[in-house]
Input
Amino acid sequence: MRTNLLTVNEFEAAARIIRVGGLVGIPTETVYGLGANGLNPLAVDRIFQAKGRPQDNPLILHIPESSWLERYCEDIPEAAWRLAKRFWPGPLTMILRRKPIVPDVVTAGLDTVGMRCPAHSMCRAIIQAAGVPVAAPSGNTSGKPSPTTAQHMLDDMEGKIDAVLDGGPCTVGVESTIIDLTCRPPRLLRPGGVPLEELQAVLGEVEVDPAVVRPLGDGEQPRAPGMKYRHYAPKAPVTVVRGDPMRSAQYILDHIADSYWEGVICFNEFAHWFEDHPVEQLGGSLDRFEHARRLFRALRAMDENGVKHIWAQCPDTAGMGLAVVNRLSKAAGFHIVDA
Ligand code: TXA
Ligand code: MG
Output
């Protein structure tokens, strides 16, 4: 199969492919997604094949406006409407009770479904034109860092999908925040583009799923099935160094081998400390939105450099930091040291 690269004014072609059961890489504000008609089980099944994704890992449905929620969900709590009003379109996914119209292959047999209304205008235009909800996981090969450009998506999916629509680099850079509204208090299943503090401001109490902050023990089941898999991982092992930026940079300097094959992901201020190594900059140490925007790109760039070990400075968990720390920790298989 040849994978076509579409430009933004070809969104109707992308919609047509989705309508007839094909697979399209779609831009969203968070990461690129691998989209298919969410009401067509055969099309959805092809997503799992293209990604090499385990069948027990459910997909989320993307809709162009909150009024579509009632087509696919029931028992929608009032909190869902409040969140939609405040954060949609935007990087928030809500877990709600599903209606029978949603195919089992989308939800991996669960009685709930993840719903998201993306902010990327081209993404919404594609969904509107397709006239169906679009099932879309992140567009990476399963286990790899998520794609934040059309080229990253092609790097993983060339020859496996029909097309990728190039909507430019993603402005958020980490996936949507996932909140489960079927339990009380609502539960944060994955930190992402909407910071936890902002959800708390709307919902009051929010419980944080343990899988967000630590590896699960044997026999522990995460609420978001995807959180149990090794994820976001570059080829080389990663060591995450936690602590005040000055101290974590010093720790890396003290421990890094004198070899070009050890790479560093660091805040801009410290890049010149590591001149003899491949370096990817995360942004200034205080710029949390920039860290989110650059993280997956940095992990992929390390793969391209072919390094054998990656050292990464770790931001703190305030605001967008929680999502960045979560992705970095998972990329490292929770190999974290304190400086
Ligand atoms: O920003 C995003 O959310 C991107 C873009 C493309 O929209 N999508 C994305 O999808 O990150 P994916 O499939 O890579 O991650 C979705 C996560 C998985 O961990 C999955 O297990 C979880 O959501 N999930 C999906 N449906 C669920 C459900 N009904 N209950 C609990 N977790 C669910
Ligand atoms: Mg994913």
In short: The chain has a mean pLDDT of 96. The CA atoms of residues 145 and 296 lie 6 Å apart. The pocket of magnesium ion (ligand 2) is lined by residues 137-138, 146 (CB under 6 Å). The first helix runs from residue 11 to 19.
